[in-house]
Amino acid sequence: MQDDQKGEEKPATRRREPIFMLPAVISALGGLMLVIQGLSAFLLNESQRMELIVWLGFVPVRLVAPDQFPGGLWPLLWTPFTYGFVHGGWEHVIGNVAWLVIFGTPVARRYGVVRTLVIFFISSAIGALAFGITSFNVPAYLVGASGGIAGLTGAAMRFIFQPVIVGRDPETGAPVALGRKMATIPEMLRSPPARNFTIIWVVLNCLVPLAPMFIGQDVEIAWQAHLGGFFTGLLLVPFFEHGAGRQRAERA
Fold first, then answer.
1. Phi and psi dihedrals of 10, rounded to 5?
2. Range(s) of the domain holding residue 194
3. Is the pTM of this model over 0.70?
């Protein structure tokens, strides 16, 4: 009887899978945005929050009136990258984090941590530049991660709606999914979902500066950063494609 009991095999315990399978870089970026918003909302007063915006937000009027702001021109070295971690409120940051999760996740899974961060920060900087070109002579500031996230969105448009590349396992010969094809711009525009998303994105953002003509007031949306970031990611991402296919094949 004892031998029978020893010979019995216990049923294998089923390993629990995490509910959310977010790439670490997306979790880190979104978490940092939420933490900074929490600290700003619960620990800083109104004056201190404005001080945070002055030092971390992008203020293009510094170019023409540096003496009116603490630090003069120096913050222009880092604020094109840091403005994305400061937000105007909980609705602003939660919306951006949700957008980051949706469009940043496929980019991070395809390209990994370093290339995802490069796309994010270069898109942020170009978005800030686009904002600055139209706002350098007015007392406006740019906060929110939409420039960088728009870049990840543009990058994702190049492949998320494309067909899956199928290879063969060298040992078994079984078909293996290697990932989605990187589309050229004409190929992307021939894909109805990618084409429609891009057209709607561009049209809606181009309508923002015309809003006062229809509703009688300005809309506080940084459409310049949205467009600048989106087209940066859209055009930049093929340069990061080298090695991405090899990584997918190795994981398969």
1. -75, 140
2. 22-161+175-211+219-244
3. yes
